[in-house]
């Protein structure tokens, strides 16, 4: 959830940028997740679309999101190449099990089992 403080000395675009960046770093916004459209977020927050657009541009310059034209703005995988690939695989798995109607608890149980089976034996 994003909240802006109109009394803050920090400009709204920067408040927005910082909050989205923190959500990406914490993992509450996962790799591949689509951000709201500029207009939608501006409307939700009661700010000008240009304010949201500027925050999104700066997040893109920081490598945290990427804009894909009509496909929107998506969170980029973070970290080294292995971490990025793992995040992409996790996102693909989450999307697939959701389409299959598997609950999150079941999905976690399946992946925990698979990770246990893939662990090297001593």
Automatic annotation (TrEMBL):
In terms of Pfam families, this protein maps to: GntR
Keyword set, alphabetical order: DNA-binding, Transcription, Transcription regulation
Q: Does the keyword Transcription apply?
A: yes
Transport found in the keyword field:
no
Domain (HTH gntR-type) spans 10-78
Question: What domain of life does the native source organism fall in?
Answer: Bacteria
SMART domains tied to this protein? HTH_GNTR (SM00345)
**Entry-linked SUPFAM superfamilies:** Winged helix' DNA-binding domain
Q: What name does the UniProt record give this protein?
A: GntR family transcriptional regulator
């Amino acid at each position: 959830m994003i909240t802006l403080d109109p009394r803050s000395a920090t400009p709204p675009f920067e408040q927005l940028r910082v909050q989205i960046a923190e959500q990406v770093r914490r993992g509450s916004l996962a790799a591949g997740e689509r951000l709201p459209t500029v207009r939608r977020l501006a409307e939700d927050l009661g700010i000008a679309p240009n304010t949201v657009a500027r925050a999104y541009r700066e997040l893109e310059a920081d490598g945290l999101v990427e804009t894909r034209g009509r496909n929107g703005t998506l969170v980029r995988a973070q970290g080294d190449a292995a971490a990025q690939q793992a995040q992409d695989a996790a996102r693909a798995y989450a999307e697939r099990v959701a389409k299959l109607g598997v609950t999150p608890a079941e999905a976690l149980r399946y992946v925990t089992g698979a990770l246990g089976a893939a662990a090297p034996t001593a």
